[in-house]
């Protein structure tokens, strides 16, 4: 059965382009013009991926992205005419898995959709307990890698816990700063970079064969399992 994609886009011309590009890849697309209609469809149908426009007559696709992320793990690709870094960061912080600015290449859109579906299939093919080499004992705030305790500082532990909770997703420096430092006004993006560097070194020492933390230039970091 082909993967099912829900497209939320109020511009008919853009919607036709998106539907054509995705259906050429053998996927099934359901198109919705309004946010309220998309919400209704999600109540009665299951989709493998959502492609959401931001500016809609009755709201924003970012609102639906936040709702979907709170309810489960359906991947989300945001389409927006606003391509500034701040807009991309906001979309990713709200739970989007990818962000594509308009105007876009239909071929690139199709490639990103397929990549998200492949990643989701890989993550769900094996139970999570078998896919992560990390273990957090919780009570003592001690993280283990392949059964080996990691000598982490309090900040490094919080950074790793945040990255692990959203493994595979890009975390902005601001999000990591809030998770590990809270209201400490003296901390900056540079502080995050420095601690990620030391955390990387400790992970490499425990597992030299893997590079777990991936840098996404201009966006942030993600944990690759």
TrEMBL record:
Record-annotated DNA-binding residue ranges: 126-225
Protein's UniProt name: Two-component system response regulator CreB
Keyword Phosphoprotein tagged: yes
Residues where 4-aspartylphosphate is found: 53
OmpR/PhoB-type domain span: 126-225
Residue stretches making up the Response regulatory domain: 4-117
PANTHER family referenced in this protein's UniProt entry, alphabetically: REGULATOR OF RPOS (PTHR48111), TRANSCRIPTIONAL REGULATORY PROTEIN CREB (PTHR48111:SF6)
GO biological process, one term: regulation of DNA-templated transcription
Database matches in SMART domains: REC, Trans_reg_C
Gene Ontology CC annotation, any one: protein-DNA complex
Keyword Secreted in record: no
Domain of life the protein comes from: Bacteria
Keywords: DNA-binding, Phosphoprotein
